[in-house]
Amino acid sequence: MEFYGTLEGIIEASQPMEKIALFEEFWSAYQEGSIDYAPSNIKIFSHPSYGAFCTIVPPRNVPLRKRMSTLEGRQLFLHAIMHIEYSAIDLALDAAYRFRNLPSDFYHDWLSVAADEIRHFLLLNEIANTWGFKYGDFAVHSGLFEAGVVTAHSLLERMAIVPRFMEANGLDANPKFKEKLYPFRTIEGVEKLLLALDVILHDEIDHVSKGSKWLNYALSLPEHNPLSQDYFQILEHFFHAKVPKGAPINIQARKQAGFSCAEIIHLGAQKCD
């Protein structure tokens, strides 16, 4: 099985279960060492794979999440999380596909992240079945896909923007999601979703940690002088503004994921113990 061509086909697979089946076959071959690494051109993907079954709208037009006490509110909430996890599958695969001639650990790291994101998506999909809808039933935006496109030229920017900013923001959001859901834990599927969010948080600390690892690697390369370009300079260049700050910060999770206390305070935390 050929590495880059197979990954390209998995990324472009237009249906979730097809993508997952193709990845599982590839992942087994990869773990067995049955992979060839023939050189190939690197493709810039012009549209997200989920465009085949999701209606894509500007972020302001995505359906607003309603109260968790209603079935529709829970469906919209779960669908939004499913969309993040599904988008993250392609982003992890794209990192392994796009950035060439790196240490072998890089490819293992991001393929293992893709495997985790698939596992998360399937956990959430089981709950969606219980709640009577499927991924694609509600409109989505393509923000994560677009972040992948605009960072396709740079390992440094990809690691800073995708795992270490966007996914790291999920570390902060996860406890807030659980807090909103907890009062409705006796409703069918909610307890299962709370457990799934625990799994996601645990795994995504590791994913952000991998982002920290490979950002530091990129900063160590001769073309990137870590004395003149740090994490926040990269973010501010990307956003053309000061880094957006969220609150509250999940200090413990971010520390486990490789953030320093100085970075955590810069992001808006009042203190970091």
Structural write-up:
This protein is mainly α and about 270 residues long. The chain has one domain (about 65-265): Ferritin, CATH 1.20.1260. About 60% of the residues lie in helices and about 0% in strands. It has ten helices and no strands. The chain has helices at about 5-10, 15-30, 70-100, 105-130, 145-150, 155-180, 190-220, 230-240, 250-255, 260-265. The longest helix has about 30 residues, at about 190-220. The chain starts with a helix and ends in a 7-residue tail after the last helix.
Mind telling me which CATH architecture this is?
A: Up-down Bundle
**Helix count, DSSP H or I runs of 4 or more residues:** 10
What is the CATH fold-level name? Ferritin
Number of strands: 0
Form type: globular
What is the string of SSEs from the N terminus onward? HHHHHHHHHH
Tally of domains? 1
Quaternary class: single chain
**Structural class given helices, strands, pairing?**
mainly alpha
Low-pLDDT segments, ≥5 res:
none
Helix content: 55-70%
CATH class: Mainly Alpha
